[in-house]
Design goal:
The chain is an all-alpha fold and 426 residues long. Helix content is 72%, strand content 3%. The chain has a single domain (16-235, 243-408), classed as MFS general substrate transporter like domains (Growth Hormone, Chain: A, Up-down Bundle), CATH 1.20.1250.
Length: 426
């Protein structure tokens, strides 16, 4: 009992009510399981496009058709965003994560039945199902971090959640070229595709079981003053409140500057990843494996950056940073600019704009590669990145959430009853 009390703080919400604050050690397991879910979805993003030439040979489809197996992820997100955000706000985190991972797993198993040269449409249907449910995970790491973690570890926790998406992307670069080789015999290609599809389906199934056992919507006690106040002042969910948050964000000029720069930077990144196989093979024949390794290096360095910059953000709250780390930093900056609007709403808009830019850039750069060559596609990529960087520089550094986390002069009744840093198992 004494150990339990050592991990609780109390502060006064108003003249008559006190709230307890507590950090639960299980929060790291919750975020870890969510990260695995993100990985199980992202691992299927480049599953086909990183071996475009092999897929073209086996299924007899065009390279543009193969590009759409990854672009469908970008196309479905804006369409599915509003229904998913509605369910996240109404049904809670656990409900949405369960729905998302079950949908991802069903899509992965559908692709098992596409091992025949005339069944590409089955593979594509599996991709559609997988990425119809990606909306439930891409916007959740900041929400989970806010609900479960203390104010000095939110950025690090958020980046751990995003780490899963990057891990899945890294695996989608490296596993297909390692497992599926460019054989002359189509039966051998089909056999190796089955290994790939079964492996991913089993991984998704195991992740579903872990989510069901370990993932919870929120801890019994809030982790911070802000979360305690949000719980105390919680308004019952309604469509009016749901749409109100979007209307508020539409009027936030600083958020829209971030949205444009975020969309440009990440849009270029995902279009480059989608076409990496085609870019490499233009100069190096039969280099599918090398294209995968280059993509792996690209993502791994970004994953290291995510963790490093997550720690830096928790210490400094400086949000202007570049490229792959921009994925996590942009999320956190967006929450600062839009507080106290729901995390899932602001992050959902950021991701939706990224997907729109990603489709546009992929189609644009694909045409440039087809008609003028890879060099003339890379030049505008660099130009767009520079433009996105300039926009980032002019965004005001308004940290509304950090201001809320600081104790106001009027509130002097924060009463820590013991040391702040202990963990208790929840």
């Amino acid at each position: 009992m004494d150990a339990e009390k050592k991990n609780i703080e109390k502060f006064e919400l108003d003249k008559s009510e006190y709230a307890e604050i507590k950090l639960y050690a299980i929060r790291w397991i919750v975020m870890g399981v969510a990260s695995l879910y993100a990985a199980s979805n992202a691992i299927q993003w480049l599953e086909y496009s990183i071996i475009t030439n092999i897929i073209v040979k086996y299924y007899g489809v065009s390279s543009v058709t193969v590009d759409w197996t990854s672009m469908i992820a970008m196309g479905l997100y804006p369409v599915c965003m509003l229904p998913a955000m509605y369910l996240i706000n109404k049904g809670g985190l656990r409900f949405c994560v369960l729905v998302g991972i079950i949908g991802t797993t069903i899509g992965a198993w559908i692709k098992i039945f596409s091992i025949r040269p005339d069944l590409f449409w089955v593979s594509f249907m599996g991709q559609v199902v997988v990425f119809a449910f990606q909306t439930f995970i891409l916007s959740l790491p900041p929400k989970i971090a806010a609900v479960w973690f203390g104010p000095n570890e939110i950025s690090t926790a958020c980046f751990i959640g995003i780490f899963g998406t990057q891990l899945g992307t890294a695996l989608s670069f490296v596993l297909p070229p390692l497992i599926v080789k460019n054989h002359d015999n189509l039966d051998e290609i089909g056999q190796e595709l089955s290994y790939l599809f079964y492996g991913i389906a089993v991984f998704c199934t195991v992740t579903t079981i872990l989510v069901f056992i370990f993932f919870k919507s929120e801890p019994p006690l809030p982790p911070s003053k802000v979360q305690a106040e949000l719980r105390a002042n919680k308004v019952p969910f309604s469509m009016e409140e749901f749409w109100k948050s979007y209307k508020v964000l539409m009027m936030n000029k600083n958020f829209w500057l971030l949205t444009i720069s975020f969309g440009i930077n990440l849009g270029v990144y995902i279009s480059f990843c989608t076409m990496l196989n085609q870019i490499i093979l233009e100069y190096f024949a039969n280099a599918e494996k090398d294209a995968g390794l280059i993509g792996l290096l690209l993502v791994v360095t970004g994953m290291i950056g995510l963790i490093i910059f997550g720690i830096i953000l928790d210490k400094t709250k400086k949000y202007k940073i570049f490229q792959t780390a921009y994925y996590g930093v942009g999320f956190e900056f967006g929450l600062e600019l839009t507080y106290p609007q729901p995390e899932s709403t602001s992050i959902g808009i950021l991701i939706a704009i990224v997907q729109v830019f990603g489709i546009g850039f992929t189609l644009l750069f694909g045409q440039l590669i087809a008609y003028f060559g890879t060099f003339w596609a890379l030049i505008p990529m660099v130009g767009f990145l520079i433009f996105g960087g300039i926009i980032t520089l002019i965004i005001p550094n308004k940290l509304l959430r950090q201001e809320a986390l600081q104790e106001s002069p009027e509130r002097t009744t924060f009463l820590p009853v013991i040391e702040k840093n202990g963990d208790a198992l929840g």
